[in-house]
Amino acid sequence: CKPTYLSVMNYLYQLRGLPDDGGTPHLDLSREALPALDETSLFDGPIGGLPYRIGWYAPLAGSYFEGFGRAAARHCDGSDLLPTDVPMVRVDSRTAASPIDWNANGRVEALPLDVNFNGRTTGPDGAPEFLAGSNDWAAAHLNQTGGRRNTGALFVLDDTGRLAVGALSLDSGRGDLGRGDLGRGDLGRGDLGRGDLGRGDLGRGDLGRGDLGRGDLGSLALGRGDLGRGDLGGGDFFTNDPLNPDGELDFETAAGLAKAPPNEFRACVIGVNCAGQTQPLHRVLVAWTAPNVGGVTGYMVYRVPGAMLLPGVPWTCVGEVDATVGQNAYSLVDASAVSDGAAYTYFAVALYGDGIQSDPSNLVTLTGVNDAPTITSIGDQVIPVGGTTGPLSFTIGDEDPSAVVITAVSSNTAVVPSANIVLGGSGALRTVAVTASNQGGAATITLTATDGARSTSRSFVVTVRPATPVYTFIGFLTPLRIAGSDAAPSSSGTLNLGKAVPVKWRLQVGGTSVSDLRSLRLLEAVPGTPSSSNPTCLPNGGPSLLLFDTVSGRPTGNSTYRFDTNGNHFAFNWDTSAATKMNCYRLRITLADGSAAKVTTIQFR
Question: What is the pTM of this model?
Answer without folding.
Answer: 0.60
